[in-house]
């Protein structure tokens, strides 16, 4: 059974369906749940950050990837970029109201995973033992 195409936003019941191939919500979901997107949104939940502060907080992200991630999240209305007219220029990033809502839900998932890592690691060990490891 094929999933129906994404309907117009004016449709009250369910205007978007992430399971539909052409639905634009898929792209936003990818931006938010990708490795760098989720870590960036989670880090910004702690408060506004400058680019390099954010880069230090999200260990392992390259300058290029963080820049691309912030651009995508800004385009989706999740992050606000505010450039200060100073010398040198100062740019701050913070979550929009939508971004705060997304971050709160994302952090609940992150905390759930962190709190259950002992079980996850045990499951991995068991799986690897019975299936020959990785």
Domains counted in the coordinates: how many?
Answer: 1
Spell out the helices and strands N to C: HHEHHEEHH
> Hey, roughly how much beta strand do the residues contain?
5-15%
Oligomer: single chain
State the helix count.
Answer: 6
Which CATH class applies here? Mainly Alpha
Q: Remind me, CATH topology?
A: Arc Repressor Mutant, subunit A
CATH superfamily: Winged helix-like DNA-binding domain superfamily/Winged helix DNA-binding domain
How is the largest sheet built, in terms of strand order? 1-3-2
The shape is globular
Number of strands: 3
Mean pLDDT: 89
Distance between the termini: 35 Å
Question: Which consecutive residue ranges, at least 5 long each, have pLDDT under 50?
Answer: 1-12
So, CATH architecture? Orthogonal Bundle
Helix content: 40-55%
Structural class estimated from helices and strands = mainly alpha
What is the radius of gyration? Answer: 19 Å
Sheet having the most strands: 3 strands, antiparallel
Overall description:
The chain is mainly alpha-helical and 134 residues long. It has one domain: Orthogonal Bundle (Arc Repressor Mutant, subunit A), CATH 1.10.10. It is built from 6 helices and 3 strands; from the N terminus they run ααβααββαα. The chain has a 3-stranded antiparallel sheet with strand order 1-3-2. The protein starts with 24 loop residues before the first helix and ends with a helix.
